[in-house]
From TrEMBL:
GO terms for biological process: protein insertion into mitochondrial inner membrane. It is a multi-pass membrane protein. PANTHER family: MITOCHONDRIAL IMPORT INNER MEMBRANE TRANSLOCASE SUBUNIT TIM22 (PTHR14110:SF0). The keyword Transport applies. It is found in: Mitochondrion inner membrane. Keywords: Membrane, Mitochondrion, Mitochondrion inner membrane, Protein transport, Translocation, Transmembrane, Transmembrane helix, Transport. The lineage of its organism: Eukaryota, Sar, Alveolata, Apicomplexa, Aconoidasida. InterPro entries: TIM22. The chain crosses the membrane at residues 46-70, 150-168. Essential core component of the TIM22 complex, a complex that mediates the import and insertion of multi-pass transmembrane proteins into the mitochondrial inner membrane. In the TIM22 complex, it constitutes the voltage-activated and signal-gated channel. Forms a twin-pore translocase that uses the membrane potential as external driving force in 2 voltage-dependent steps. Belongs to the Tim17/Tim22/Tim23 family. GO terms for molecular function: mitochondrion targeting sequence binding; protein transmembrane transporter activity. This is Mitochondrial import inner membrane translocase subunit TIM22.
Amino acid sequence: MDDLYRNVFLSDRYINYRFLVPGLTQNDIQLQKVAKIQRSVQESCLLRATMIGVGSGVLGTLVGTFLFSINMSNTTVGVDDKPLSVKQEFVKQYKSFVPYVKSTVKNFAKLGFMYSLFECLIQKKRANSDISNSVYAGCTTGAFLGLKNGPFATVGGCAGFAAFSYLMEKYQRSK
């Protein structure tokens, strides 16, 4: 009886609701393998976090460029008595522009990568998609970012990022 139960109710045809399909062709089996590989790549937390980190880096480039353009510390008015030529001024500004934007890109990319990685891992572990995942991911990211500055920065980073994540998720889900 137990063997009959396994053969009937636990067979692949019964579990996957393929009662009328006599069997899969070689092409169908190959397509299923490709679909399985594609699904595992799309559900990869590391790949997802890397893509979000790259996108955050691009956003960091835009934000860094904007912030550098409105930053008043890069002007030379009243500092030197001799005026610089346009080319010399351009070279001087460019030399201070690149490290400024590079720093912003690195920080945005690191933040985006860490947050999305933690959120994905927490979501997979909990097998649930809700606001709590964002709060946990925000707390973990904030704690990791404040870790080298001591325990108060770690706790403050955790609380700040968790609160910000909660507010953003609440706002996005209300729309």
